[in-house]
Write a structure and sequence with these properties.
Elements lengths: L1 H8 L2 H5 L3 H4 L7 H23 L8 H12 L6 E7 L5 E9 L9 H10 L4 E7 L9 H17 L3 E8 L2 E4 L7
Parallel strand pairs: 3-4
Antiparallel strand pairs: 1-2, 1-3, 4-5
Helix pairs in contact: 4-5, 6-7
């Protein structure tokens, strides 16, 4: 059964991006097996991300953080907004998903972001969200919410280090585009 699915899709990341309901349409896969598969794929994504992220690695460029989060977000079909909390040495303390939206938007408010940042005594933060459409360019809404979050951070003395948009295997950095 596993070989049939691998042959059919020719790419496990395609299978990993499928929904529970979609997987149960495959011959021989019921709800329990589908849930087990999805849990295994999620664990693999987290292990891959965390093994890169939590090795006391100092974040010194947008690429450092992008390479950690691309595997986590590239196949998601819903937009996710994540905050990454850094200490004074630019080492990751924690990351947390702030919101999960729909195909092309997620609702986020600065207070939700800074609550996480304050709770873990962050010196700075990095914002990350994905574009399931595959287009890494920031929308007007992306630029607007980033400005609000940056202004809130100035008041609390927790600066935004960068905002990355992940789209498939690519990303856009607000710092590199001089939008931050």
């Amino acid at each position: 059964m596993a070989q049939e699915i691998i042959n059919k899709y020719n790419n496990l990341s395609v299978v990993a991006a499928r929904s529970l309901e979609s997987l149960t349409q495959e011959h021989g896969i019921g709800k329990d097996k589908a849930a087990t598969l999805l849990a295994a794929f999620e664990l693999c994504k987290r292990i891959q991300s965390q093994s890169r992220l939590f090795l006391n690695k100092t974040i010194s460029s947008p690429n450092d953080i992008a390479q950690t989060f691309i595997p986590l977000l590239k196949n998601d079909v819903k937009e996710k907004f994540i905050v990454v909390c850094l200490n004074a040495a630019n080492k990751v303390i924690k990351y947390e998903t702030i919101s999960i939206g729909n195909l092309n938007s997620s609702v986020v408010h600065p207070r939700e972001i800074y609550k996480v940042a304050i709770d873990c005594s962050s010196a700075s933060i990095i914002l990350i969200h994905n574009h399931p459409s595959g287009n890494p360019e920031p929308s007007n809404e992306d630029i607007s919410i980033t400005k609000k979050i940056v202004e809130a951070g100035k008041i609390m003395d927790i600066p935004v280090f960068d905002h990355l948009i992940i789209a498939g295997d690519t990303y856009t950095s607000f710092v590199e585009k001089k939008l931050l």
